Amino acid sequence: MLRPRSLLFVGSLALVGASATSGCGEPKVSTGAGPREYVGSDYPLVLKRWTRTQSLIAPSELDDLLTVTATYESWDFRWAYVVRYAQDYRLTVEQRRELLDKTLAETRDVHQFYVALYGSNRRWTDLTKPNSAWIVRLIDDQGDESAPATLELVPKPGALERTYFPYTTVWRQVFRVRFPRVLPDGRPSIAPDAKWMGLRFAGSEGNEELRWDLDATAAPAKSADAR
Description:
Blueprint: H1 4-23, H2 43-49, E1 51-58, E2 63-72, H3 75-88, H4 93-105, E3 110-119, E4 135-140, E5 145-146, E6 150-154, H5 159-164, E7 173-180, E8 196-203, E9 206-213
Antiparallel strand pairs: 1-2, 2-3, 3-7, 4-5, 4-8, 6-7, 8-9
Helix pairs in contact: 3-4
């Protein structure tokens, strides 16, 4: 019988295989603003488009050093999220408009990610601790690298997190990580002509990257059954 740790390792290998298979077909994403025409049922597809997963495995030790799943809470993602949330909670048109305005406004100042991760030692994977085994950085293909503006641990993920980010489990620690859109020297943290952006997790045990390929020319995504 497999022990819990072995089960987690096997599960992580499955995630690696899934990532390797899906990585070749990851669609390019657009960080452009503008109106969207989503309905609540579009949310799972939008979540998938903006979510990436990677695992760092030490085969010689049969150990999952770090498995990370992260969703970039972009303009496009937030629009779909609010539409789904408004449908689930039966918000009025005015309540939905206010929530949408508020959540989209946040994208002007920060790049925000919802991050759920598992590591071989839970105490070492708390990104908010100074003795964490890992640091996280926002990177792009131009060589830009930025530290978080804020790192927030979600100590007890509830119904919202488990429903809207279903990869949230009791085995993972959950964080909201925010990076400034503009650095102190006035440069954008993601270059305007970047071909990809991503998150780098680095430490003494190794490093791994989650990447989102960018398509600056892509038109705003719309639902197949938009109305």
